[in-house]
Amino acid sequence: MLKKLIFLFIALVLILLVLAAIFVPGLVESKLKDAILNNNSSEYKNSVGEIDFDLLTRTLSVKDLKIVPTEKAISDLKKRTEGKKAIFEIALGDISVKNIKFIELIRNKKVLINEISLDNLAIHVLKNEKVKSPEGEGGKQFHPDSIVLKNLNGIEIRQISVRNLKYQVQDAVKSDTLFKLDSLSFQLDGFIVKKKEDNYFALRSLSENFIIEDIKMKMPEKDMVISLAALEINFFKKRISIDSFQMKPSISKVAMAAKFKYNKAIADLSVKKLELFDFNLRKAIGHEGIFIDSVAIDGFRVEMYKDKRKPYDTSLYKVLPHISLKKTNSIIDVKKVHVSNSYLLYEQRNPDSNLLMKVFL
């Protein structure tokens, strides 16, 4: 009799699991699709392609997710003089959330996810540079040690993968491209949002290092190209390292200077190695200030060119660096700076002369 009851219990559990595997995914997919499409926003329209949820592997996959600003939102941004100065458009080819711990979520109200992967993510920002924020409004600031989570006791995502990220900033009025990142892929070991004694949550990295290699960015409006071989952040040692940073004109300095109506300094600079030691990243993210023990710069090369045969822009008002620092509301505390193997080259063409003057330091 006992064996029969055990057999019936196992059979009932298996039937329930089969029924759950058949009906639960469809319910989750339907609810998620409704939540995406019914966003109750007057500024954006959402659309989504295929949504797939596998209960057995606890994996959720969403394809062709798009968040697009409405024509009215774009029109309002172009006319606006005060308030929000940017809107965005997001297109995500595929997002996969793997190994979701549902039991932990139900029992302890903790979100535990093994991996999130984002493929072909394109972010397009439309910006109106003329819009001014109302005085006294600095926007919502993020503080990594004072996060508020409603109805949750923690979040842990063990791995995040991003492949083929594209990012573009465009002038909403002139339609000029201000900044462009063609393609970037990286992987990090994730993060944990852990509850503290004061009932706030703190954001912490699960890994010691975060590394991105071969970064290339464009600023078409300024004819500039920015690149670096590698960016490494060591969260535990509080060190940031940048290898082979370069910011240079996309055309020759002479050709670029010829495009301007007035004489303007054209800069071409590079740094072989830049290291920030004991950098308080949490305070920087939390808008509390920049606190660095020491900065080491090796192979800093600056080459500048100015064509003084062109007239000076009398309407131009430049604030000197020390005045800008005095006006800033942020604390900047850098104890030591060491520069090695570096030089400055200044080139200038003077009025009524084709001779090129050079100053080398």
Structure at a glance:
This protein is an alpha+beta fold. It has helices at 2-37, 71-79, 102-108, 253-258, 281-285, 321-327; strands spanning 44-47, 51-54, 59-69, 86-100, 110-127, 154-157, 160-171, 177-188, 191-195, 201-205, 209-219, 224-234, 239-249, 266-277, 290-307, 332-340, 343-349, 356-360. 19% of the residues lie in helices and 48% in strands.
Major sheet characteristics: 18 strands, mixed
Helix fraction bin? 10-25%
Low-confidence stretches: none
Shape, principal axes of CA atoms:
globular
Q: What does the radius of gyration come to?
A: 27 Å
N/C terminus separation: 96 Å
Oligomeric form of this entry? single chain
| Number of helices, where a helix is a run of at least 4 consecutive DSSP H or I residues | 6
| Fraction in beta strands | over 45%
Structural category is: alpha+beta
Order of helices and strands: HEEEHEHEEEEEEEEEHEHEHEEE
* Average of pLDDT: 82
The total of beta strands comes to 18
Description of the molecule:
The mean pLDDT is 82. This protein has six helices and 18 strands. The protein is 19% helix and 48% strand. The chain has an 18-stranded mixed β-sheet that branches. The protein has helices spanning 2-37, 71-79, 102-108, 253-258, 281-285, 321-327, and strands spanning 44-47, 51-54, 59-69, 86-100, 110-127, 154-157, 160-171, 177-188, 191-195, 201-205, 209-219, 224-234, 239-249, 266-277, 290-307, 332-340, 343-349, 356-360. Strand 7 (160-171) and strand 8 form a beta hairpin. It is α+β, with helices and mostly antiparallel strands and 361 residues long.
